[in-house]
Design goal:
The chain is an alpha+beta fold and about 100 residues long. It is about 55% helix and about 10% strand. It is built from four helices and three strands; from the N terminus they run βαααββα.
Length: about 100
Amino acid sequence: TPEVDENSVDYYTVIDLERLGETLYNAEFVTWLLKKYSAADFIIRLAKETSVVLLPGKGFDVDHPSARVSLANLTEYDYRKIGAAVKLILQEYYQQFSA
């Protein structure tokens, strides 16, 4: 569920992989994920496998497990595609973790 701030003027939203991973799975998975992969690994894999290109969530020189999504120029279909792609890759990482 997205957090809503009626005073916010957002041009982008940040997908926080730590929070999302813990919400979908658990804290142990997130700890494993952060040890095994860098923040850039996720963004690069997302682009290569799904053609979804996102910016680093906290800036270009910051290794933070997040990605930034523009809210200015995409369609609802594009946002659904981004969400599905992010969830799919996290699910595949979770399968590796669980194996």
